Amino acid sequence: MAGKGILAGLPWWVTWVVVPVVLLVVFGGLITTALGFLIGLLFKVLIAAALIAGVIYLVRRAGGSSSSSKSDW
């Protein structure tokens, strides 16, 4: 592999400390943006699921009191 050849003569701390830090500095904004988007999307999906479940619960609870709920529609 070309990557091991480049890093072969360097101390261990360059491979395990400096390289990850440089990658985080360079791609940190991209990683933060992607994680923020995914967390926001997950939050919106959970809110939508909770709202839909609440509507279904309310409709079933209200529909149970009337005997002719299907004929109303």
Question: What is the element layout, followed by pairings?
Answer:
Elements: H1 2-7, H2 12-65, H3 69-72
Compose a concise summary of this entry.
Helix content is 88%, strand content 0%. It is mainly alpha-helical and 73 residues long.
Task: Characterise the protein shown here.
This protein has 73 residues and is mainly α. The chain is built from 3 helices and no strands. The chain has helices at 2-7, 12-65, 69-72. The protein is rod-shaped. The termini are far apart. The model has no long low-confidence stretch (mean pLDDT 86).
Overall helicity: over 70%
Largest beta-sheet details:
none
Broad structural category:
mainly alpha
What is the first-to-last residue Cα distance?
68 Å
- What fraction of the residues are assigned to beta strands by DSSP? under 5%
Order of helices and strands: HHH
Mean pLDDT: 86
Q: Measured on Cα atoms, how large is the radius of gyration?
A: 27 Å
Point out poorly predicted stretches. Answer: none
Coarse shape: rod-shaped
Notable features of this structure?
73 residues, mainly alpha
